[in-house]
Amino acid sequence: MVPLGSLLLPIVLSAVLVFITSAIIHMVLKYHNSDYRKLPNEDAVRAALRAGNPPPGQYMIPYCIGMKEMEKPEVKQKYIEGPIGVLNLLRPGLPKMGKNLSQWFVLTLVVSFFIAYAVARTIPPGARYMDVFCVVGPIGFLAYGTGQFLDAIWMGTPWSVALKSGFDALLYGMVTAGTFGWLWPR
Q1: Contacts of 86 (CB under 8 A, 6+ apart)
Q2: What per-residue confidence (pLDDT) applies to 20?
Q3: Which residues fall within 8 angstroms of residue 16, CB to CB, at 6 or more apart?
Q4: Mean pLDDT of 80-87
Q5: Quick one: pLDDT at residue 131?
Q6: 3-state DSSP call for residue 77?
Q7: Sequence ranges of the domains in the chain
Q8: Nearest Cα to 23, choosing from 168, 176, 133, 181?
Q9: Is this model's pTM higher than 0.90 or not?
Q10: What is the rounded CA–CA span in Å between residue 28 and residue 32?
């Protein structure tokens, strides 16, 4: 068993490298720019939402509290007529990228910490680079990527978006695996 404290450097460095990889994906490669589309009647939708004054949160359209309510003819008709969707509303104002980037970096640290916790108990000191890589990589992929596919299944996220995010997760898992393999205690 490897002491968790001896993995502090791979935890922090892998989080930093995943953060940098993410920045390259979003600021240089920009293949996520096509993940969102503009509504053809955006101004009318914005006006309708402002008139309702909903607080920030996640909303379902049409809203249905449970399966019994879904059996009502008027609810069924709403589903037939459409649209059907999940709507996430943020607080009004310019995006606060500093806050979002800080939260993203903290998440990368948390993921790296839990990966370290799992592999410290399963991989002995002095393990070969590829032995560490082959365990850390899949765990990293699962940690960063599983939610994207759940959102495609349950929330209507387009599969093309989920697959691109899954590819990101694969890169993040490989970066994490490479860092742990390189810095694994000898």
Answers
A1: 58, 59, 60, 61, 155, 156
A2: 98
A3: 108
A4: 95
A5: 98
A6: helix
A7: 4-36+95-183
A8: 168
A9: yes
A10: 11
